[in-house]
Design brief:
Blueprint (H helix, E strand, L loop, with lengths): L8 E3 L7 H7 L7 H11 L4 E4 L6 H8 L4 E4 L3 H15 L3 E5 L3 H16 L2 E8 L32 E4 L6 H13 L4 E8 H4 L9 E3 L9 H11 L4 E5 L7 H11 L2 E4 L14 E4 L6 H9 L4 E5 L5 H4 L11 E5 L14 E5 L2 H9 L32 H13 L5 E4 L3 H9 L8 E2 L9 H13 L3 E6 H7 L2 H7 L3 E7 L4 H10 L13 H7 L3 E5 L5 H10 L4 E6 L9 H9 L6
Parallel strand pairs: 2-3, 2-4, 4-5, 5-7, 6-7, 9-10, 9-12, 10-11, 12-13, 13-14, 15-16, 15-17, 17-18, 18-20, 19-20
Antiparallel strand pairs: 1-8
Helix pairs in contact: 2-3, 4-5, 4-15, 9-12, 13-14, 13-20
Length: 585
């Protein structure tokens, strides 16, 4: 077993003032560092830059506007970073986030951490205080005198690569590092901080020309042969995660050739069709009881894990999810296999999932018929009819979202952390990959109320966010969508409380806590910002409201008054919290 990758080639030998370079760009004056940085980003395939301006970042902001990169000015830096994360997944191109000094940087950090956890490719460009002004209490001073350096301006847990550009002489190396990161498998989040006076300084070195080639982690034939031997010993299951989204076709072929049972993580919904007879259900948070019945009644000899960390909200580290003889775990991150279940025998395979499955398919002949497929437990969906009175039940809303949006459109559907997330995981069904986006890792509120804007823009079509009222009040970017006429749709579960918190506290045995919110009218708020919207107060109004939202050409808010007494299927999460000591019993 090994990992091979193609190296990124960066050619910085051509001088900016050379005749050959002039024949292409014909500069009338020397490039500034800000202009050079933007040129480098453009050469890496960047199409979008999201952020909030400020005096210290003005030269870079101006240079972005003068380039082919589309610049969107957001209301908050965290929203820009969340939107950049989802724009990356919608376009498969790196996205830039820009911010000014001080609070501009710290505001963006939550969204950038989400990008890191999700595996996006995002390049953060910020300003820092010019050297002569450092230590003198400059406005929003950003220097080692006023802000921590480690982790924010250096590589570490937040950024794969981070540096402060103190001279144009550093540009070739910065470009090389960025190119390596953008070309590597998996995510890459970088931070380039540029002092204001350096941004406007003239370029004194060559302008790097970046040639990108994608690296692919591969696996040896010996490792493949070992996997084939183990999987041929007896019945096995395939556990599909978001990291396998590029291998949907191959995974289906493997399952149908071998008769393997398939389950998926909450983020992996749709990679393997949820209506396929070999699909047993979703694991973890909001998942399906049918998975546990399968593991109890037909426990497989091995489980082939493809592209999931098996973290808490995917597995809850439940012992019932352990196969008889262990896991075969494939991931492009060599640190992932074996982490979730450290005491269980695990064959770790460091590889791109699609490359691995394609290699594996060569060893399994076509299997005629379906007699090899066992009769599996299935996740049943109850038929729920609308009622005339009362507030809207979440399961009725989800059933209508399934009919109007999932089945009758190609829109990307995303769900914000909270009860909206667990209802969507549990009740929505997807038959195609890359149509469902959630965050079960970092899980920040505000991710998808803002991320929907980036997804709709970069995906060049509708994107729908199912969100709670708490998240919508916290950090939405409706105003940004209005400015750029982005067809984002927000479906707000408006129950006037942080209901996951309220219901969870009751389950854990804590009483007399207050998680209520004064009920907001999100249609009036949206209309006040120039968006259209509609309020849903009964179950018979849902279908027409969703159809109107999907027909709208601009941003649209559907404000649904939800029955707060309906209990979301969060028992597995609450049981996990109890096992960790978060209980009053």
């Amino acid at each position: 077993m090994d990992a091979k990758s193609e190296h990124i080639k960066v050619n910085s030998s051509q001088k900016l003032n050379s005749t050959e370079q002039q024949s292409h760009s014909k500069p009338s004056k020397p490039f500034s560092v800000a202009e050079a940085v933007v040129k480098i980003l453009e050469g890496m395939g960047v199409q979008y830059a999201f952020g909030v301006s400020g005096g210290a970042i003005a030269p870079v902001w101006a240079a972005l506007h003068q380039s082919p990169i589309q610049v969107l000015h957001f209301r908050h830096e965290a929203g820009a970073a969340f939107a950049a994360t989802e724009a990356y997944f919608a376009s498969d191109r790196p996205v830039v986030v820009f911010a000014t000094t001080g609070p501009g940087i710290t505001n963006a950090l939550t969204g950038l951490l989400a990008a890191r956890w999700e595996g996006a490719k995002v390049i953060f460009v910020s300003a820092s205080t010019s050297a002569p002004q450092r230590g003198r209490w400059a406005c929003q001073e950003t220097s080692t005198y006023t802000m921590p350096n480690a982790g924010i301006f250096t590589s570490g847990e937040i950024f794969h690569y981070a540096t402060t550009l103190e001279s144009s002489d550093e540009l070739p190396e910065v470009a090389r590092r960025l190119a390596l990161g953008v070309g590597q498998p998996g995510g890459f989040v970088a931070h380039i901080s540029i002092p204001t006076n350096i941004q406007t300084s003239s370029l004194k070195t060559s302008l790097p020309l970046v040639n990108l080639s994608r690296g692919v982690a591969t696996v040896t034939e010996e490792a493949i042969a070992e996997c084939v031997q183990l999987l041929s010993e007896g019945p096995f299951a395939i556990w599909v995660g978001f990291g396998a989204r590029g291998a949907a076709k191959e995974i289906r072929q493997l399952a149908e050739k071998t008769g393997a049972t398939v389950m998926c993580s909450p983020q992996g919904k749709g990679i393997f069709p949820e209506d396929h007879p070999q699909f047993v259900g979703v694991t973890g948070f909001g998942g399906h009881e049918s998975v546990f019945r399968y593991m109890q009644e037909k426990r497989p000899w091995h489980i082939l894990v493809l592209g999931t960390r098996l973290g808490e909200l995917t597995s809850f580290w439940n012992l019932e999810m352990i196969p008889r003889w262990g896991f075969l775990h494939v991931d492009i991150d060599s640190k992932v296999p074996g982490t979730a279940y450290p005491s269980v025998k695990t064959l770790a395979i460091h590889s791109d999932v699609r490359v691995f499955v394609k290699a594996l398919l060569k060893y399994f002949p076509e299997y005629p018929g379906t007699s090899k497929v066992p009769l599996l437990p299935i996740s049943k969906r109850d038929v729920i009819y609308p009622r005339a009175g009362g507030k809207v039940r979440p399961d009725v809303l989800m059933n209508m979202i399934q009919r109007v949006i999932v089945e009758q459109s190609n829109a990307v559907v995303m769900a914000e952390v909270g009860n909206s997330l667990v209802w969507a995981i549990h009740l929505l069904r997807f038959a195609k990959p890359c149509r469902f986006r959630i965050s079960t890792g970092f899980g920040s509120m505000g991710h998808f109320v803002t991320g929907v804007v980036g997804a709709a823009l970069a995906g060049n079509g509708k994107a729908v966010a199912i969100v709670g009222d708490g998240a919508m009040l916290m950090n939405s970017e409706v105003n940004t969508a209005v400015k750029y006429q982005i067809p984002a749709v927000w479906i707000v579960l408006n129950d006037a409380r942080y209901n996951m918190c309220e219901q969870g506290m009751t389950y854990l045995g804590f009483n007399d806590v207050d998680a209520t919110i004064p009920q907001a009218d999100f249609v009036k708020i949206a209309q006040g910002m120039g968006s259209d919207g509609i309020r849903v107060q009964s179950e018979y109004e849902i279908q027409a409201a969703l159809e109107k939202a999907m027909a709208a050409t601009g941003p649209f808010v559907v404000d649904v008054v939800i029955d707060p007494t309906e209990i979301a299927p969060t028992q597995s999460r609450n049981q996990s919290l109890i096992s960790q000591g978060a209980t009053n019993y």
